[in-house]
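Milestone M4 deliverable, item 7.
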Amino acid sequence: MGGGIKWNGIHKEVADLLGVSKATVYHYGKQKKIIKIRDSHRLHKEARYEKAEVDRLVYEKQSFPTGMSPNDVARRLGLSVQSVYKYIQDGSIKADAFPYGDERITYVISETAYQEAEKSLKPTETQRPKKYEYYDSKNDISLYQRFHSSKIPEARVVRNEENVFVFHLPNIQKWLAYEEGIKIYTLKPSYSIHQPPLDCKGYVELQVPKNEVVFYPVLLYIKAGEKPLKTEVFGIADILTYLINGEMHHEDDTLILRSPNRKTSFELPIQLLETISNLAEQEGISISKWVEQKLLSIIKKLYKIILKKF
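Output delivered:
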């Protein structure tokens, strides 16, 4: 091959050797991970790269221990790749870290580690609630949905021992048949159980723990902005307990929600931006998340340096 390994017209040869996409091969060349053979006179239609450099990357990949990648684990557990990386960081998924290329780290999860993670992270069929268990399509109500009226300040939809949806009145610890609550006590839903899909990232996050009157732990995302607060339904004191991310304020019957995130922009050289994009793709996360993680890592290191000086 004349000192280099020759690609075909769509870069497939090197991509197949390295087991990566053609776009990744292109970025490897941009990042100088594989050395491109200069062809000033354009004698060859296809790009050519040093065979030794390609062989080196192939050897590095083959030297990794056998096991699953975070992408493989994400597919098998039905999780996002970002969630798998998070579980690796907090120790929920045991993984071995190995250097790969320049300043890169790849993770390998053994079959034993996967099986341990599967037990705690992948819900079984018996754990998954069936729709009929928490939703009554005939009456369009859901388990633990809140109702109220001028006669009854609070009622919750529950299932009785016969698995029939009824109303529970927590204030007086009594039960009402669904029809009785609707017709006699004019109970009406305090909120809609049908919501439009999320369409932006500016949210305040709340989490209701499983020991509360809910079916299972619930993570709520409320779009940032101003919303009317109906005090007869609930007060801000009732929900501040569950606030985990963002800010909430009550002013003049208006609930003000502020997201913990703020959008900004940077002017970066195209080559640097391409490098960041490629690294984020390799880790299976967004560019924003990659930059956030790296900045946090740098800040933590700076704090340690500062603390040592004092």
